[in-house]
Design brief:
The structure holds 2 protein chains of 2 kinds.
Chain A lengths: L3 E4 L2 E4 L4 E8 L5 E7 L6 E7 L2 E5 L6 E7 L2 E7 L7 E8 L9 E2 L3 E5 L1
Parallel strand pairs in A: 2-11
Antiparallel strand pairs in A: 1-3, 3-8, 4-5, 4-9, 5-6, 7-8, 9-10, 9-11
Chain B lengths: L2 E3 L3 E5 L4 E8 L6 E6 L6 E6 L3 E5 L2 E6 L4 E6 L8 E8 L5 E3 L3 E6 L1
Classes of the chains: A mainly beta, B mainly beta.
Chain lengths: ~110, ~110
């Protein structure tokens, strides 16, 4: 149990659907992250939030929209996705943004876009 | 550009020793991380190196040479449960984690 939960664990959606991924951390951390993990590719950082403020947005298409209502919850809203967006979406949290603040990951949501 | 290289897949025998290499080229260096990821599960933190040398933690050790842009993860007395992907990541000068694609380690009896 890593203290970071993600729902749903699996999601299949059409290109015209709107869905949301949810992440919750029970570690009292102040920073949260969204990553995309595609098969045999490096983890891609999508968004970083610190104290509910977005501090990083790595040129992610606007069809991905993050929301951080409080330091324990992070959402990723999805709309009009493309098949190439199919991947494992991982949420992580850390105490802060210092180098030594280890990131703790959730189990991920396996997303398939048809 | 920034780049992290590690082998795609390795195979080893239960009880043996395996070394997983990672080379990196990044804009600045603020430390190197190793994570373990079992299939279908979250990556979990294994080690952090920021100074040259070997850090030992039980059956796992991690080595860093900053001048060579090189690290390895050494796993001793391999167990079947060590079958997983091992991810190397470097924190660059902007304090962003740059990730390798991971090394899938297969342990055979």
């Amino acid at each position: 149990e890593t203290g970071v939960t993600q729902t749903p664990r699996h999601l299949v959606m059409g290109m015209t659907n709107k869905k949301s991924l949810k992440c919750e951390q029970h570690l009292g951390h102040n920073a949260m992250y969204w990553y995309k993990q595609s098969a045999k590719k490096p983890l891609e950082l999508m968004f970083v939030y610190s104290l509910e403020e977005r501090v990083e947005n790595n040129s992610v298409p606007s069809r991905f929209s993050p929301e951080c209502p409080n330091s324990s919850h992070l959402f990723l809203h999805l709309h009009t996705l493309q098949p190439e967006d199919s991947a494992l979406y991982l949420c992580a949290s850390s105490r802060g943004l210092a180098v030594t603040d280890t990131q703790y990951f959730g189990p991920g949501t396996r997303l398939t876009v048809l | 550009g920034q780049n992290i290289d590690q082998p795609t897949e390795m195979t080893a025998t239960e009880g043996a020793i395996v070394q997983i290499n990672c080379t990196y080229q990044t804009s600045g260096f603020n430390g190197l991380f190793w994570y373990q990821q079992h299939a279908g599960e979250a990556p979990t933190f294994l080690s952090y190196n920021v100074l040259d040398g070997l850090e030992e933690k039980g059956r796992f050790s991690s080595f860093l040479s900053r001048s060579k842009g090189y690290s390895y993860l050494l796993l001793k007395e391999l167990q079947m449960k060590d079958s997983a992907s091992y991810l190397c990541a470097v924190m660059d000068s902007n304090y962003q984690l740059i990730w390798g694609a991971g090394t899938k380690l297969i342990i055979k009896p």
